[in-house]
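Review form for a predicted model. The reviewer records the input and the model, then writes brief findings.
Reviewer: anonymous (R2)
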Amino acid sequence: MNSIYTNRSQVVTQILKEVDAVKILLVPLDFAKEKHVVRICDATGDYLHKKSFDVTNNQAGLDYLCQRIDSACGRKGIQKKHVLIATESPHSYCLHFMHELQHKGYIVLRVNAAEAKKFRKNSIASSDTIDLDGIANAVLNRRARPLGEEQQIYSNLKRSSRYYKRYKKDFSRQKNRIGKLIDEVFPGFLNIRKSGIKPYSRFSIELMSKGCSIYKIRNMKQATLVVKMRKYHPVQKAIKLQAHAAASIAPSKLIVDSLSRSLEHAIQLYKALEAVCDSEWEQLAISLVQTPYSSMHSLPGVGVVRATTCAAEFGHPDTWSSLNQMCSYAGIAPRTMQSGGPDKPAIVLGLSKKCNRRLKDALLQAAHQTALTPHTAGSLLPQLKEHKLMRHYKTVSARNGKSGLSTARMIIRKMRGMVRGETIYLPAKELSVYELKIYVMSTFEKMHNNLKGIDLDSIKPENNCLTQMEVEWKHLIESLEQKDSDINL
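Model under review:
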């Protein structure tokens, strides 16, 4: 239906059409960790009580709130399905409170904090009561959305993907701290051209975790150093490392012991962060395989992290908007402005800063990486090496266009078809049965390589989308081969 109120809540609008405003109960909540502040009013805006009341953030508080709501409904003759409970986008500490209200049969709405602020009575002062007024006004102006009950798998993906990114940032920071410490203890140790040791390799980490210093390397017998390095490096590396230690300027012995201990502690934290990142990555991979987004592994240059980011931020395919809205949400659609009559062309203003930055980063990285990554089937059949996304990127780049943004948009368009159809990334041109077989086998080999080290057998077969896709394609290839052989006969 065409309307100027495209952003209005259809849930609230439908209820306001069904019954009179006095037969609708509105319950705005302002959350806190210990006690929530609540008021009750009808859809005309008249409060049923002079003051707000508190409810504790536990089961007793939930029962008390339901009791107050049921009491108000009884006095006003309001049905339970016409009760609207509204709050600003809830924090983690109150999500269970809101979902429990949903399970009890109430309509729970969330209001964007910026929208609620616009509808406050006072734009200067702020208090719990004023915030409640803003939430109630936003709902009555249809600026609220139902609190979606996300499927557990997608809420886990969102949580894990965001924690993984934070852990990786902490991991990178820890590397920088170690670099500063080792530059004082043993200058040039992490420079492979000088020391011959690969930075942050298993040997370098092992050596730094046991009182590493330039004096220790200088005084160590060459035979002992060779034995330590034998597992990781050839004998010549030991000679090069000692030669570098002898040629470097040594720090004062007064600070070496202190710095070595600090380095040991930094390495312990480094190992802990590395283990946490590996564990979170494994959890991401296991969760991703149980969603249709596992098909994104078939895109060249897209691995677990980028596919998981798309799954976590876009959510279940049933909740998707249009292609243009998804691109706008991801921040890859430029803003435009048109004024001065129908003959004036639109002006492109650039990308909006109001977007999902996690999605934007993942999609742009995927776009540039997929342009550099040939399809794995190209190693067997050269004609399959250059795929459609790669050609598109090169074509747009050749005309000095926005190749990254254009390819990112195409990735979303491909993703919509792949995820909804639960199928792999297919070539643009028609292939023979033999070429298709090579293409499909290479694609699934690449997808399994992305998940190397993950125990896929621990996932129930009915939940493993990757295995289901592989079985379906296997049957399809077999049927095509059978038809092809029948034709040749």
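Findings: The chain has 19 helices and nine strands.
Further findings: Residues 155-284 form a domain with the Helix Hairpins fold (CATH 1.10.287).
Recommendation: see findings above.
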